[in-house]
Write a structure and sequence with these properties.
- The structure is a homotetramer.
- By secondary structure, chain A is of the alpha+beta class.
- Helices cover about 30% and strands about 25% of the residues of chain A.
- Chain A contains 17 helices and 24 strands.
- The first copy, chain A, has a seven-stranded antiparallel sheet with strand order 3-2-4-1-10-9-11. A six-stranded antiparallel sheet of chain A has the order 5-6-7-8-12-13, with helices on one face.
- In chain A, helix 5 crosses helix 6.
- The two termini of chain A are about 25 Å apart.
- Chains in contact: A-B, A-D, B-C, C-D.
- At the C-D interface, strand 5, helix 4 and helix 5 of C face strand 5, helix 4 and helix 5 of D.
Chain lengths: ~475, ~475, ~475, ~475
């Protein structure tokens, strides 16, 4: 899935503690996390050496390298910082929703950056508003702040612990106070969060790839239910909540979101993707001349798939590096224009060939239709679509921006119908069991697979409608 | 005083109620109020016809015509709007301080724009933070919002009335709720606020010049202590607080801030300025060949001065229309470079002449020194500086950004010392009594003159240090 | 005439020779000349100390302070520079038309900046194209370059002299070669050009106000027909052409174009304008309560007019300082919106008063109509329009962008018709003789008055159609 | 070679003839050709249906999608257009060097866009300047224009033919006149140029990938020595010069420049690259655990290499999609920062593995050093560098911006020295014969291999110094 339209990560977060260039390292980490959110970004920093430090903040719409420049970085001084990248939605592109959120409280300045989604935010918010709280954004993360400000006691770590008992859902958080950095993860561990060390400084960040960029050393992951407290004395661990057993790591992190060079949830993303391809090959082989991938997540899957079957993997679709924000379509329609701007089919690979196309997932299916049509226009004789994850039949409430159920292709059509709709000669999905095998899960699975199975790890709040039984029951494969 | 460096207005505000192009009219009113604030501006609008309207907001650093364009205006839809321009300070040029502030509350969406300064904001803020309130900005106006959110009752006008009993100081406010617009003025009436009518719509705005631009009809001023409630049924007046007697209109509005074509505090600004010149001529005449003004406020003063004395008024200093934000000075210093970029002295008016220079006020005196030096370099034989207001000896706590007392020239030097410091052949200020005469005040004066006299209209809060007796006692005139 | 729409100067030019910050001084001079052209600007510099210097150039659309910043200035190094500002036309806003033009030739690098208009450029261009010359712009100045490149001899000053014998019309030029700066003026002296000294460096520039800004000393004007050659040895004067007698200084320079603090054609602009007002008062007095000006050129005229008649001059129209490039008009028309954005009428000056309005000139009359209507809406009881120059009945071919004759109001209507068209209670123009008196011209007039009289100083080229006799014959005054 | 620093293509060109959206299609073609030049781009269009058409032009620094927007495209109207992308050099980033060049001549408007390099441009230029020609740019392409303007006759095709007899070197050109489009290629055919058809319109463009994007049909290539004349009657072929035998197609087009989905010189680029990998495997196998590529050109080479040897190909280096123009390095150095921003090494592929790294070529070697160091830091146990082309020992004079010979690694070091310098465990290059086999060349080779062999296809002009014998004589392989 190259096109970040149907399935979006909430965001990526970073916290730096104890380096004079704290904002600068946050900026580089956000750059490494850019794949987790391209809509907006922000950094807030403060100087731990001051008695009454104040936040220096910069936020903006757009990519990290567009929003930050030397002048801006020179202005965001200080020895600690937190940062955030967020994805692009159509609706609420409002600047007041950009994180980190910073505020002044009786405890001094506090800043927060959040990855995830709180499932009981609406109720809490309504209650707080009735008590006179003022909300500036539409973001559920703001609930966390207000609860923090209203919690009892003058010790921030106790307050955070108190808030953790009130909120439900997914949260990986960094919180910066005037003298400490906190890295917090919900008891299911939906979203990743890792700790690294950079000389004397500590780094808390969504994925290890950010540590690699700045030459920081991986220390460990923040555990589900854990609050890590970082100050000049080092790291202290608290477990305000017991880790849930089994945990509920988001399975879309290894399938699609995380960068292939990252190691999260204790596993190597690149290897997991390759194994998904291998399992897919076992479950759903194809008799073809060549295997090609839909970039980028599909590439290691295709390598595993081809290798397992002994079929050559080819670069049938090349990603264009110069895609900008907008393109102006000519009056006379160019067929599948949007896809062609981003992916270049290589005719010499496709012409008169039987091709297996490996994609990481199918959400709405609208892009897949166009890609298949484009491949056929380039001369492919047969197209066998293979998908490295099971059919997505349910919405996510933990921070993945899945479309409404009526727009999830697999919630509306059987595999037989989908094959025809997409225009493939055959279509095969990886099974849930196959996915578990690829992820190395035996009995009790530590991954959340609710979007494939409808089995949510916690009782989802009443506003969420029960969903009809899915039409894909047993079928994972169809052919013409 | 052409240079908006030493004395700054807090801001200008506008509210529009009941027009499909509410944001557009707010934009034009802000343009007309641009002289009241050039740092930043913002507009928030909502659609009164919707059941659950939401704010559409745009804010930015810079001038109104830089921040708003057709695309932005097209996005800020709705039938009611509020807007704000604010001045430029060196320190806290933070985007989170830009008004209007909008927030969500149990009463629905609320927006506020504020001109003035609350003198007990710090205490209230501290108290609220201890109760769990979160502040996003450093602006005292935010206190008003929090008090509003925590006030009892479901009727917003009662809540506003309740807040008015708690805050002290200067405030002219517009508050927009999901179905009403409120225009509120403190009981002293420090800052102006007028009401106009544009077809079926109502306009509340700082100065009448904004009404003139959009062809709105002047209705009346909002009275001190009054809350005007505007809805589809029309205007309703409330007086939560008794107007103070005497009131305390800011005397710097007619001296410097307000636009000459505005009518506020029941008076015509242009005529007031001309009368200041006439009174100045009576108190402090000069035997000169020509009278020239320091643009812009000084121009009508110079006309009154020259006419009273029968001396020709000349354009000795022409304002440059193309001044941009920044200019790059060459390595070899150009003397008084900053002033020369903005004001062009006309040699043929000045060469070998005895000149009276009329300025509206002297704050730090740093610009006056340069102007006088520049005039002398252009050939003026004698320079007699006349100032259309009394010496400024005390700081303002009601929304004028006066420098610290140690930087107020007249708080540090006698008139005799100032004359020498500024390099004038003679120096004369208007007296407080002369200013009262020019403003048409007989016995009880409805204007605040604390910056000239130190007599503040209310007991100023304890954090404000008492100021030493001023050195200018009787003296308003000095000559070489 | 505040609105630079109907009558436009071609441009302003500058050359700096012999200072390490040559580009920086050119930039400041262009800033001082900004009133001569707001569309685009450019600077080209080279280092005289290098054996094979190359031009460093920066050009752009917009104002000087928009196009140049510290980075750009740091890049345009060298000890000599030339610069240019040009006005805004609707049509050919092409970047390739921005001057200075620089090119490489057998003589080394050459750069040119031109103010004026060559009347035989079209013929020369056609001839040169047939001989294989390539033109990159639509600007007549390029003809000068090509002739220079094709002139015989290796001495540039001889080549320039040779070109001067071939071109006709108006030209004030600066030309920069690898070791010399040339300042050239046509034999009629249509456009101004003055020489100044800045320590060891020389400055050639359109108006003295630029010398004042950079603290350069005025040396003298370049004479009509003269080529001034500047090098490390100093100034050398050549007269390739005899100065024409009488010369033909553009009379619109003192009426409208030049800055009031400039001294050109041997005269002080501010004083000339005041004398135009005095002569106008003598020829066309008005029985009014107050005299007001249309800013900016009208202001000194109004001062002369009021003083001569003993009537008070008031600030009835205040120029807005925050006018940006574009403004978005609301759907419901605001009457005379464009004018109201730029000029604020002061009601207290106008209400129920009989007013004389002094404008410098009337070109199309479209703006005048709106101003008069706006003044009447502000309450003026009687409006007597007085114009400080004669009716414009003919087009200019020497560098002023006059509209086509059919759009010149005075070429189409008699004064009686114009008065009614403009909506004035009375209308009076200055006579040609009155203008001559104001300019201090006795018998032989050294100013070109072709736009008022149709008497062009040289035989205008055949492509220029003869114009019909003008309808304004004797009449310069009309009343209701 | 992902880093376009050492070896740069001159540019990409396009011409569109006979479509109302000519500029729009040119824009899309330039987007598809963006890999051939990222510094600047431009389009010039005119309307063939007008009697006296004029060029509408837009040019700018930066990428196609940065320079062009809907407003710009709406302005560049007309039914024919030419366009150009050019690469980024450090020195002469001057806007006046951006193509297409348009000019006015006795033949009407003429525009030109050029890919290649004329080897006798300097002499011709010097001659023309002495005859009075003016050059505006430093680009050799301008020589072509001047010769065209000075050629005899009124028929443009004859003039072009005449110019082709005068210039030497590499040129693929599109020339647009008021009624015809010409596509011209030098007799050696150094640079590609193909013809396509889009409904009734014709397209001439550097690579077929641009035809694919706009759904145009490939017609044929322009032949070496051919001038294709396109007008409303269709295509006409002229051969002003005999095609040279053998021709001299640039071998770096298939190695590095061309897009893998293009077909030029009659061959499929993707397949050629894969064959280079196969030949490299035969000549220089490696005993490793995995094969990885340096993106992008190295990827198909790695696939061929791995497949030939039966070793798995892995994604060991992932290209970052969010690289912006500039990145701000922190004060404390991050090792190999620039490379890490662009390429992400995947630790799980590299850790403790013996790796063959396939790069397309080595120019200066500076990037290769960093990549190898980064791979080793990521855990690679052995690194065997394999290069899909022979050692580059000589500079190119035909449009590839090779560095000076002293900066070509292979011109300065033997393979043994290079291996050590780069830090590889072994190093192997493809031989010239191997490259010929990969390109399908038997006896007479139609590709120019001068940069590998020093045997230039034409007598290079005298200003080009003879180069010393290269040090790489026989050796193409070295091991530790």
């Amino acid at each position: 899935m190259i096109f970040q339209k149907s399935l979006k990560e909430e965001c990526g977060i970073v916290g730096i503690y104890g380096d004079k260039q704290a904002a600068h390292y946050a900026y580089l980490c956000l750059y490494a996390l850019q794949h987790r959110g391209q809509e907006a970004c922000g950094i807030a920093s403060l100087n731990l050496e001051e008695d009454a430090p104040v936040f220096h903040t910069h936020k903006g719409m757009g990519l990290v390298n567009e929003c930050f420049n030397p002048d801006v970085l020179a202005r965001i001084t200080g020895t600690a910082s937190i940062g955030h990248v967020r994805y692009s939605t159509s609706g609420s592109k409002s600047e007041q929703n950009i994180q980190p959120f910073t505020f002044n409280s009786a405890l001094g300045p506090l800043g927060i950056a959040h990855n995830g989604n709180l499932t009981n935010a609406t109720e809490i918010r309504k209650r707080l508003e009735n008590e006179g709280s003022i909300f500036r954004s539409n973001v559920d993360s703001e609930v966390f702040i207000h609860l923090l400000a209203r919690s009892p006691g003058s010790d921030i770590s106790k307050r955070i612990a108190h808030v953790m008992t009130q909120v439900e859902g997914a949260y990986s958080l960094v919180i910066l106070s005037k003298n400490k950095l906190y890295a917090v993860r919900d008891p299911f561990g939906f979203r990743p969060l890792v700790i690294g060390k950079l000389k004397d400084a500590y780094v808390a960040v969504s994925e290890t790839c950010a540590l690699d960029l700045i030459d920081a050393k991986f220390v460990r992951e923040v555990e589900p239910g854990e609050m890590v407290e970082i100050d000049l004395q080092g790291i202290k661990s608290h477990f305000p909540l017991q880790p849930k057993k089994p945990s509920a790591f988001c399975s879309f992190e290894p399938i699609y979101f995380a960068r292939p060079d990252s190691r999260i949830f204790g596993q190597e993303i690149y290897q997991l993707r390759q194994r998904m391809g291998i399992e897919l090959a076992k479950e759903s082989p194809a008799d073809v001349d060549a295997v090609i991938a839909v970039p980028d997540s599909g590439v290691p899957m295709a390598m595993g798939y081809g290798r397992e079957l002994g079929i050559p993997v080819e670069l049938g679709l090349v990603r264009n590096h110069y895609v900008g924000r907008t393109f102006i379509q000519p009056q006379q329609d160019i067929r599948d224009f949007g896809v062609k701007l981003k992916l270049n089919p290589v005719p010499s690979v496709l012409k008169d060939k039987r091709i297996a196309v490996i994609d990481d997932s199918i959400v709405r299916g609208t892009t897949s239709i166009k890609i298949l049509r484009m491949l056929r226009a380039a001369g492919a004789k047969e197209i066998h679509l293979r998908v490295g994850s099971p059919p997505i039949t349910h919405s996510c409430y933990y921070g993945v921006d899945t479309p409404h159920r009526e727009n999830l292709l697999a919630a509306q059509q059987s595999v037989v119908e989908m094959r025809e709709f997409l225009g493939a000669d055959s279509l095969g999905f990886l099974s849930i069991d196959g996915l578990k095998r690829a992820l190395g899960q035996k009995n009790e699975c530590s991954y959340c697979m609710a979007c494939f199975s409808g089995k949510y790890p916690e009782a989802i709040h009443s506003t969420i409608k029960p969903q009809p039984t899915d039409k894909n029951g047993p079928g994972l494969f169809a052919t013409a």
